[in-house]
Amino acid sequence: MSPRATPVQFAVAALIALFLLVFLVVPVITVIYVAFADGAGGFTLSHFSSFFHITLMRESFWNSLYVGFWSVLISSLIAIPLAYFTVRFEFRGAVLIQTLGILPLVMPPFVGAVAMQLIFGRSGGVNLLLNEWFGVTLPIMEGLNGVIFVEALHYFPFILMNLVVALNNIDSSMEESAQNLGASGLRLFRRIVFPLAMPGYVAGAALVFIKVFDDLGTPLVLNQTNLLAPQAYLRITTIGIEDPIGYVASVIMVAASLFALWASTWVMRGKDYATLQRGYAGLAKRRLSAWQTAFAYGWIVLVLLVVLAPHIGILLLSFAKLWSFSVVPETYTLAHYATVFQDSPRMIWNTVLYCGIAATLDIVIATAIAYIMLRTRIPGRQALDFTVTIALAIPGVVLGIGYLRTFRGIEIPFTGELLTSSWLLLVLAYTVRRLPYALRSCIAALQQMHVSLEEAAENLGANKGRTIRRIVVPLMAGGMLAGFIISFMTAAVELSTTIMLVTAQNDAPMSYGIYLYLQSAAGRGPGAALGMLAVLLVAVGTYLSHRLIGRTGGTQPLEVQKIAV
Amino acid sequence: MQLPAMEQSVKVKVEVSDVSLAYDRTPVLRAVSVTVEPGEFFALLGPSGSGKSTLLRLIAGFNQAQSGRILIGGEDVSRVPPWRRDIGMVFQNYALWPHKTVAENVAFGLEERRLPRDAIRTRVKAALELVGLQDYGARRPGQLSGGQQQRVAVARTIAIEPKVLLLDEPLSNLDAKLRVYMRAELLALQRKLGITTIFVTHDQEEALSISDRVAVLDGGVIQQIGTPIELYDAPANRFIANFVGTINLVRGRAARSDGGATFESPAIGRIVLPGAVGDGAAEIAIRPHAIVLAQSGAATDPACTWVDGTVGAREFLGEFVRYVIEVNGAEITADEPHFSDRVTYKPGDPVRVGIDPARVKLFPA
């Protein structure tokens, strides 16, 4: 590590700090300020007290916590056995489970919610069959149950993926030495495996909680508005940008999300259990007995069916001429796709444009921050990482409200257009919201790269800039591309900020279009069709980037690690 | 062997003068001064945390000293960034870039020097030939064995014809057999190129076997600089005596006497030493192979001082047998050359331990 930071490094760090200040810190602080300010600019708790005097708000507060808690619990019940199966046992289903991990990235929960109602709702396919065969119905989609069910099904992979990584990172010697000292079976699991995997689980669970709190689309589509996110949105959009109650709801949401984030880091503090020794060897895999295999496959197939239900449902819906009070649609049509191709090419283009710009900005900023964090000694560099991570806990609605309030009346130079009515603001919101994903990806890529690879370049005559260009960036390319994909995909299905910031139909991205369609019964078909196109777009993008990684070759981080042990 | 394109380089002197460095107030190097003569193969030897790698990185420009100067060929480079120093360094983990082929790795430094394409090709070829890897240019580093990776790292470094060659624990990632082979190779290469070379190691055998001179560091301080034989035969202090080779240290008291000194200890009693010493607490150091053993009751050489002991443990090492002998509550390590007709002792055997005063080194405590 070079002892002193260069002026260029300082300038870049300052520029990024300014960006985060203007587009993250100030808008959030503004929201908090408004929630606590009386008309004269003094401090007051009266907005909070009036918030809790409104029955609907009190109810929304408790409902949000209730939905968050149950979603985490049900996600855990789905994810933990799956994680354990993949890591512990030798069977082919592991690949299936791995693919489950990316499904929620491909389709946002609010799109699936409509399909879920058609399949699991009161008059949906499942309950029709149950009623016919057994004379009972399950209230899966009734009221808040529906929200919990949809959220849990979409977000359990966050727990699954984190837990699988944590379990895979446990060196087999950890388990073997415990066995050597006399532990086995459940005691071995409880005393060694579980504590070592705990940080991964907690990280995943916190993420699920935050995601559920953040989600605005699902409750709106399911018409469950007695939750905090819809209330904040409705107050601001119906009563107005001046209504303090919306701000109070925002502050409570930020506080709950920050608390979840803080709790997960607090639990994980000092527990960075990277126990993997040289020579990769995760936990020992066991063969399953016949009935264990049957059980494992049974569970996986069941979960897969339920998890795929929204996807299959949307697919059917997009082709269905009429679908109500039947298990599957009775007649099929291509009319919805025709409608969408006529109405929405502009939206598809907007999505590609906005998300492309946002993901590119993310990668540039994230690479710079990762470099500043890991390779320079610029004072305050930890603050950059910290600030970006905080963005994870800022619900989209809150950021949207913050932008509208902070930038109101501000014109874009030279055009005279209002910033708040420009799609630029949407791009900036996407950039800020997806930056944490890109940053984690870039930091991981740079961390895997031994400093001596850069020092060798400097030793052979390349200065800092050329070393970055010829060594750092090519070696980080894989991680950067992965970060780009995640940023792009998740921005493409973003709705919470989108519905706050879209002002003109012409400037709206696909996610907004899908939401508009899904609002009416007649729009369900075209909405589903547009949803399928979004899924297709994201899938094609992912495939192309994977091809790209494969072609550039030699950038696999694993190979770097192997040499740099 | 004829050197293609690689000429004997201009030999350069490296001077480190009064260098001190601390990380967050923890001193790592304290007033270190070393001069490495042109063309010398020089070792920095020390236990981990002694500051030897820090000193090497300082010469390469990756650390900056709080005080002191570094001169390469008489020129102060303390403020020169690493990329303008023209000092080649081979890293402990080789630091080969996985996204470049072997040939691209070797060409890197030449490209940075904006050499014409033809010249780069010739010099890459010459450097790879020099390390015997001329057929491996198109491979990726990940496809090579540890020993081959190291040769690529060396080729990449000497391709730029650096003024000085730095090697950071160059052999530590290789297995035992390969290590012995590669160190002879490295020495042969250095002699061929005549380049001033400094290498860091924690392995005293490695340092003693191939270097012209060695600087031993401990706690960020240079303990002694000398040829391997000087370090071994005339250790400057008890740290060196203990660190370089195996040695017995016995505590006691020294006193002046006519014609020399006497040393008295509970372990070996009284021994008369040649040469003058001061009075007071002292320690004597004896190499295990300077100790003679004799069967209890056998005739003994009167030139030695003899004490009775019991064999505690023994290790058979082929050329010799290493005994740990209990002598009046102390332990003495003795090496006896081994031949098939030679008597060996078993643990528990009584034995006589002979010490030749001429081979004893005394340190004031």
Descriptive account of the structure:
The complex is a heterodimer of chains A (565) and B (365). Chain A is built from 25 helices and four strands. Chain A has 565 residues and is an all-alpha fold. In chain A, helix 16 (345-375) crosses helix 19 (423-447). The model of chain A is unreliable at 276-280 and 551-565 (pLDDT under 50). With 365 residues, chain B is of the alpha+beta class. Chain B has eight helices and 20 strands. Chain B is elongated and about 80 Å long. The model of chain B is unreliable at 1-5 (pLDDT under 50). Chain A binds chain B through residues 1-4, 450, 452-453, 455-463, 466, 470-471, 474-475, 554-556, 559-560, 562-565, and chain B through 60-64, 81-89, 91-100, 108-109, 112-113, 140-142, 149, 156-157, 160.
Query: Which strands sit side by side, in order, in the main sheet of chain B?
Result: 6-7-8-3-9-10
> Total number of β-strand segments of chain A?
4
User: Could you give me the name of the CATH homologous superfamily of the domain at 336-374 and 435-565 in chain A?
Assistant: MetI-like
- Largest beta sheet of chain A, briefly? 2 strands, parallel
Please state roughly what percent of the residues of chain A sit in beta strands, choosing from under 5%, 5-15%, 15-25%, 25-35%, 35-45% or over 45%. under 5%
Give the proportion of residues in helices of chain A. Answer: over 70%
Tally of helical runs of chain B: 8
What CATH first level of the domain at 336-374 and 435-565 in chain A would be assigned? Answer: Mainly Alpha
- How would you name the CATH homologous superfamily of the largest domain in chain B? P-loop containing nucleotide triphosphate hydrolases
Give the helix tally of chain A. Answer: 25
* Count of folded domains of chain B: 2
Q: Please tell me the CATH architecture of the domain at 336-374 and 435-565 in chain A by its name.
A: Orthogonal Bundle
Under CATH, the topology of the largest domain in chain B can be stated as: Rossmann fold
Structure classification of chain A: mainly alpha
Main-sheet strand order of chain A equals 1-2
Radius of gyration of chain A: 25 Å
DSSP strand content of chain B: 35-45%
Mean pLDDT of chain A: 82
Structural class call of chain B reads alpha+beta
Order of helices and strands of chain B: EEEHEEEHHHEHEHEEHHEEEEEEEEEE
SSE arrangement of chain A, N to C? HHHEHHHHHHHHHHEHEEHHHHHHHHHHH
